[in-house]
Write a structure and sequence with these properties.
- This is Lipoprotein.
- InterPro entries: Quino_amine_DH_bsu, TAT_signal, WD40/YVTN_repeat-like_dom_sf.
- It comes from Actinoplanes palleronii.
- Helix content is 2%, strand content 49%.
- With 397 residues, the protein is mostly beta strands.
- The strands form eight sheets. Strands 3-2-1-32 form a four-stranded antiparallel beta sheet, with no helix packed on it. It has a four-stranded antiparallel beta sheet with strand order 4-5-6-7, with no helix packed on it. The protein has a four-stranded antiparallel beta sheet with strand order 8-9-10-11, with no helix packed on it.
């Protein structure tokens, strides 16, 4: 889904077996800084309490910055401290859509994020970079997606047809010239006309690689999809699920296909995570994990995940080579190298996100209306904080 973004800080943790359901955790102040998504917008949770930002707020791809508009003022906020680092006055009607990881660049539109945008003949976008504003008037239905690493370009989703949008291509808006152009192939040559991939928004989730260079977007339910390499070679395409790899510095894109049966089950049953050593994708419907190498952009192997079938999935990689795969009210603890199951941890309600504290001591589980944290060594629930209307745990600082 175009509205879905899940960014987690990953760190090492010692994880052990836990086989029985623990008593409910007591309500207490959250020991770390978290970002939760609610029906009324983003909320920052910290030991000092909760800060509500409302619906006109967006989180950066690495989870370290917020872009917030209130009363026609754009604020740049550091997640860790809650500090407002810059404000910029705006004309009425602009909504934040993208903020760069360093907080210096913001993209805004007159409409909020939707799974499929409404038809329109032209799109107005506004960028605010180091406090300087510039407006763009673009033909068709264009949605902002991510800034280039040097903040000279904005990756956008160009939806087609503009009169009844149902699919899109990822393109690059040159912020100097104002022109929208195709991406490059992995060989760093422009994609020729007619060979741009066209994708549908269903099941769209994304994470940023640990080095900040790759935006990794999971697509499911894409039957008949033809990658650029298929279009160039004339081969038929039929990928049901893949990870779209977008290089934010070199401006190329590549699709990493996921093996069958990934993509066959509900989009919510899929989740992805990345760290310095690679990428993982889980499919709760089939109970499978796929591990990929981000250097070679190839699937290394698959392994069973043993999760409740069809439920909303959550995934977390730890620094000590553990994989935490969650669905429904269960988190499976797996050895990342051998695939061996090390434990099964209960959570008090269906999961809506997992996160790991920076020191690796606590695993956070988002559930409807609350966040529970578990001891990372035992899986024991040690605390809980209520968050009215919580729909997803988005980030742990």
């Amino acid at each position: 889904m175009t509205t879905r973004r899940t960014f987690l800080v990953l760190a090492g943790a010692g994880l052990a077996l836990s086989g029985c359901r623990e008593p409910a955790a007591k309500a207490s102040a959250v020991p770390d800084v978290l970002i939760a998504e609610t029906g009324r917008g983003l909320v920052r949770l910290s030991p000092g309490g909760a800060q509500k930002y409302g619906p006109a707020a967006v989180l950066s791809s690495d989870g370290t910055r917020l872009s917030v508009v209130r009363e026609n003022v754009l604020s740049e906020i550091v997640i860790g401290s809650g500090e407002v680092t810059r404000t910029t006055a705006l004309a009425a009607g602009w909504l934040p859509r993208v903020v760069s990881p360093d907080g210096r660049a913001h993209a805004l539109a007159h409409t909020g994020a939707l799974v499929i945008p409404r038809r329109r003949s032209r799109t107005a976008l506004l960028t605010v970079i180091d406090g300087r504003t510039r407006e763009y008037d673009l033909p068709g239905v264009v949605e902002p997606d991510a800034f280039t690493a040097d903040r000279t370009g904005l990756f956008v989703l160009d939806w087609l047809p503009a009169t009844a949008p149902d699919h899109y291509r990822v393109r690059l808006l040159d912020l100097n010239s104002g022109r929208v152009q195709p991406l490059q192939t992995r060989a760093k040559v422009p994609v020729p006309g007619g060979a741009e991939e066209q994708m549908r928004g269903e099941g769209r989730q994304a994470v940023l690689s640990e080095n900040g260079q790759l935006l990794l977007t999971l697509y499911t339910h894409q039957p008949g999809h033809q990658h650029t390499r298929d279009l160039l070679s004339g081969r038929p395409g039929n990928a049901h699920a893949f990870v779209h790899v977008l290089h934010l510095s070199e401006h190329w894109a590549y699709c990493l296909d996921l093996p069958h049966p990934f993509g066959e089950g509900p989009p919510a049953g899929h989740a992805l995570a990345a760290d310095a050593t690679g990428l993982a994708v889980v499919d709760a419907t089939s109970g499978q994990l796929a591990y990929a190498n981000l250097e070679t952009l190839q699937i290394d192997r698959t392994a069973p995940a043993r999760l409740p079938s069809g439920a909303t999935a959550a995934l977390l990689l730890t620094g000590d080579r553990r994989t935490l795969a969650g669905a429904n009210d269960q988190v499976s603890v797996l050895d990342r190298d051998s695939g061996a199951v090390r434990g099964s941890w209960p959570v008090p309600a269906p999961l809506s996100g997992l996160g790991l504290s920076g020191d690796g001591a606590r695993v956070y589980a988002g559930t409807p209306g609350a966040v529970t944290w578990l001891d990372a060594a035992t899986g024991e629930a040690t605390g809980r904080v209520e968050v009215a209307g919580l729909t997803a745990l988005r980030h742990v600082a």
